[in-house]
Amino acid sequence: MIPARYAHILFAFLVSGIMSSLVSGMTTLRTLGLAEGVLGAWASAWLSAWALAFPLVLVVVPPVRRLVQALTERPA
């Protein structure tokens, strides 16, 4: 089991992996269609996107959480 102190890193890893796979998959399919080699092209695009997305999520999530807290009501 992963210690709780690493939860933010695991969160960033999973969210960035899922989102980058979906976005890169959609753009690869739109660009190439169901052509031969589309899975290899998608995998390459996904790894590149994930390499950028993971550190960005680590940086962007804390200020976004603060912004959401500032814009929403707290329960009574």
Automatic annotation (TrEMBL):
Residues that span the membrane, as ranges? 41-61
> Which UniProt keywords are listed?
Membrane, Transmembrane, Transmembrane helix
Q: Which Pfam families match?
A: DUF2798
Q: What protein is this chain from?
A: DUF2798 domain-containing protein
UniProt keyword Membrane, yes or no: yes
Highest taxon of the source? Bacteria
